[in-house]
Design goal:
Number of strands: 18
CATH class of one domain: Alpha Beta
Strand content: 25-35%
Shape: elongated
CATH topology of one domain: Structural Genomics Hypothetical 15.5 Kd Protein In mrcA-pckA Intergenic Region, Chain A
Order of helices and strands: HEHHEEEEEEEEHEHEEEEHEEEHE
Number of helices: 7
CATH superfamily of one domain: RNA-binding S4 domain
Structural class: alpha+beta
Radius of gyration: 23 Å
Largest sheet: 10 strands, mixed
């Protein structure tokens, strides 16, 4: 509801840029997220609740989000690759006081926010930025940015199940787009599978596996478009290279021109490993055992 106050009307009349655009241009949040915050009453302009359609002056008006003042001046655009560890939630602030990814990027020196999500029990590559337009493009459902995951499945996966994952699985009433599936290794009691998808639906990989009664023991995202997790250690972050940023932006532009993901692809690269016996499975010379990982 639009507040019927003289102060609010004065703000509307005297300034030139919509609030959600100002927040996006400053890299604080995407326009869509800003609209959600406005409707939830979490944003105030000069102490008054904001409303959809309000226009502000970035240089003159005071903007607060959840009571915290924000600066709308243009600043350096940050594009960050973070290795999110398991146990962290993908949010900047958690009401349940759980560990969140904001704690891992405090030394960036400016506010950045996640591009998409990884659930608490998942790990791997997470992009963060203060570029609202970039974040919105990356998360838009019509932009098919490839994301690759490496998952451990127990006890096994059949060729038929791998083909179903690649062809598409109905989750939440909608069939997923074709995916690329490679079975990397098979051992007694587990299989390691690599999946590349072209959507960003909530908990998509886990839901796809649940639909086929596959038990996911571990899920790690290893790439988003051209950006690889590589040797980045859990809890560490790095800036994307200019080439990585340009390529990601190019992917979204290509998707905008109605390019569609390729059809389903399945590769069974693994053969069941032989059972370990005397003289088998011993670490090679120079390999260190990690006692904490022994069971």
């Amino acid at each position: 509801m639009v507040p019927d106050t003289g102060k609010a009307k004065q703000i509307m009349e005297n300034n030139q840029i919509r609030l959600q655009k100002a927040l996006s241009d400053a890299g604080i949040m995407s326009r869509r997220k800003a609209e959600e915050y406005i409707q939830q009453g979490r944003i105030k302009v000069n102490g008054h609740p904001a409303f959809l359609g309000i226009k502000i002056s970035p240089k003159k008006d005071s903007i607060t989000i959840d009571g915290e003042k924000v600066v709308l001046a243009r600043e350096k655009k940050w594009y960050i690759a973070l290795h999110k560890p398991r146990g962290y939630v993908t949010t900047m602030k958690d009401e349940l006081d759980r560990k969140c990814v904001a704690q891992l990027v405090q030394d960036v020196g400016t506010r950045v926010y996640p591009v998409g999500r990884l659930d608490r029990n998942s790990e791997g590559l997470l992009l963060l930025t203060n570029d609202g337009a970039f974040a919105n493009a990356m998360m838009h459902p019509s932009f098919h940015v490839p994301k690759t995951y490496r998952i451990t499945i127990r006890p096994d996966i059949t060729e038929e199940q791998a083909l179903e994952l690649a062809s598409g699985v109905v989750i939440d009433g909608v069939k997923t787009l074709p995916a690329q599936v490679t079975v990397l290794t098979k051992e007694p009691g587990r299989a390691v599978v690599q999946i590349t998808i072209y959507e960003g639906r909530n908990r998509q990989i886990r839901k796809m596996c649940e639909a086929l009664q596959l038990d996911v023991a571990r899920l790690r995202r290893i790439s988003v478009g051209p950006v690889k997790l590589g040797m980045l250690q859990p809890g560490e972050w790095r800036e994307l290279t200019p080439n990585e940023v340009d390529t990601l932006k190019g992917v979204t532009r290509a998707s905008r021109s109605n390019q569609r993901p390729q059809g389903p692809q399945v590769q069974i690269a693994a053969q069941p490993s032989p059972p370990k016996g005397p003289g088998r499975g011993r670490p090679s010379e120079g390999t260190r055992r990690n006692p904490q990982r022994q069971r």
